[in-house]
Design goal:
By secondary structure, this protein is mainly α. It is 41% helix and 6% strand. It has 17 helices and nine strands.
Length: 427
């Protein structure tokens, strides 16, 4: 039996190696273009800088305390750690020897300059939609940066995920190069929003569920929500009225949330706060409106749970949670969960409180958090962490109380859920 399993494994590896060879063969001949010799125009640099903001490229390609775009930032995945690459125009360690065609292939096909397959921590299954003109502008901006000699760090991935053969198999299942095609049934503004959301902004990288191999459905229109691997934050569905769907919002409200991070009925937190902080607040109002138009047009999906089927918490848990809420929460969020306008969000009727996934709520209570400091909201109010003040049972009780009070009707939070979140927190 063991011999048969070993033979099966060897055959599988041989097939994977063949697949790598075939993928390299299908990738075409090695690009022979030379690096450009003339400096980019100021117009191209400005346009590329804007597009880099829209794609939030610097966040991943800049190590904390390091030079901008010099790479080295660790990106944790379920398969190990991937380190972002150096995008400065250093000839030895960056993209100084790349041509525009090399860079375009990286975005569209997920291949490095030498044709090597790239890891999908770089979201090429979304940047494949970036137009050639935008790719060239991004490249011109990056080659205008000061070169930084910083060697790329070797990824720390477990076998077989650290092999080109495994990547080839993954790509064969989950990746197909695509082109963005405008939909004639919609306005140019809608199409611009679709391009930014599905392609350059790669919103689906977080707002789409992933399976055990890190793959998605492959449908770039799927924004049905998903747990962000290794971060333990849930990116809610952008189409569900009970999560983050905005079909019934006014356009001005959606634009305000995207540009400032806060509205009277919502506030971004966690990874989305970083997106607003580093990217969305800098976009032109026309692009913010285009994104809002697209998001508002998403067909609403059915509710997550019939409220009549929601399990009820015990009176003892609700009583315990009510006392904790009165002691630690009511001063900001109100005795009746009404909150304070422009400061502390209401608990009553708040979709973030009643999400079917409780990861975000537990994160906020344990670790605290702030809305992003933006031009439209430069001094956001924050929430202190309670990880050292409340036990796992306390956190579960107070969240259960909030999810069952003031008209809210959501399932209780278990002590196990809190324990799992606390134990999985990374420094």
């Amino acid at each position: 039996m063991i011999k048969r399993a070993l033979w099966f494994l060897l055959v599988l590896l041989a097939l994977a190696a063949l697949l790598v060879w075939l993928q390299n063969f299908w990738g075409g001949p090695r690009i022979q273009d030379q690096p450009p010799t003339l400096p980019p125009t100021s117009e191209q640099v400005a346009r590329g800088a804007y597009l880099a903001r829209a794609g939030n490229c610097m966040l991943c390609h800049t190590e904390r305390g390091g030079a901008s775009y010099a790479g080295g930032r660790p990106i944790a995945t379920p398969f190990g750690t991937v380190f972002s690459s150096n995008l400065t125009p250093d000839a030895a360690t960056g993209i100084g020897n790349w041509s525009a065609a090399h860079f375009r292939r990286a975005l569209h096909e997920g291949r490095s300059r030498d044709g090597r397959l790239l890891y999908p921590a770089f979201p090429y299954n979304h940047t494949t939609l970036v137009t050639g003109a935008d790719s060239d502008a991004l490249f011109d901006y990056l080659r205008s940066l000061p070169p930084v000699n910083k060697p790329n760090r070797m990824h720390r991935l477990r076998w077989p995920y650290n092999t080109q053969a495994a990547l080839a198999v993954w790509r064969a299942i989950y990746f197909r190069p695509e082109r963005f095609e405008e939909d004639a049934a919609y306005t140019p503004e809608w199409n611009r929003g679709a391009y930014l959301v599905r392609g350059l902004g790669h919103c689906g990288a977080c707002h789409t569920a992933r399976n055990a191999l890190g793959g998605t459905s492959g449908d770039l229109t799927d924004l049905s929500g998903g747990l962000i691997p290794m971060q333990n934050w849930y990116a809610p569905s952008l189409s569900s009225p009970g999560q983050a769907g905005v079909a019934d919002w006014q356009l001005a409200e959606i634009q305000q949330l995207l540009a400032t991070g806060v509205t009277p009925r919502a506030m971004v937190q966690g990874p989305m706060a970083e997106v607003v902080l580093h990217s969305l607040q800098y976009l032109e109002p026309t692009d913010i409106r285009a994104i809002a138009v697209f998001l508002k047009s998403l067909p609403p999906t059915p509710g997550d749970t019939d409220p009549r089927e929601v399990p009820q918490a015990s009176p003892a848990v609700l009583a315990r949670g009510g006392k904790i809420y009165e002691q630690h929460c009511a001063a900001c969020h109100g005795d009746a969960g009404q909150g304070v306008s422009d400061a502390y969000p209401a608990m009553a009727g708040n979709r973030a409180v009643t999400l079917p996934m409780t990861a975000n709520l537990v994160q906020m209570v344990l670790n605290g958090g702030f809305a992003p400091a933006t031009r439209g909201n430069p001094r956001p109010f924050g929430m202190p962490p309670f990880a050292t003040q409340l036990t796992d049972g306390d956190v579960a009780a107070v969240l259960t109380y909030a999810r069952a009070s003031w008209g809210n009707r959501a399932a209780p939070v278990s002590e196990l859920e809190v324990t799992q979140q606390r134990s999985s927190a990374r420094p």
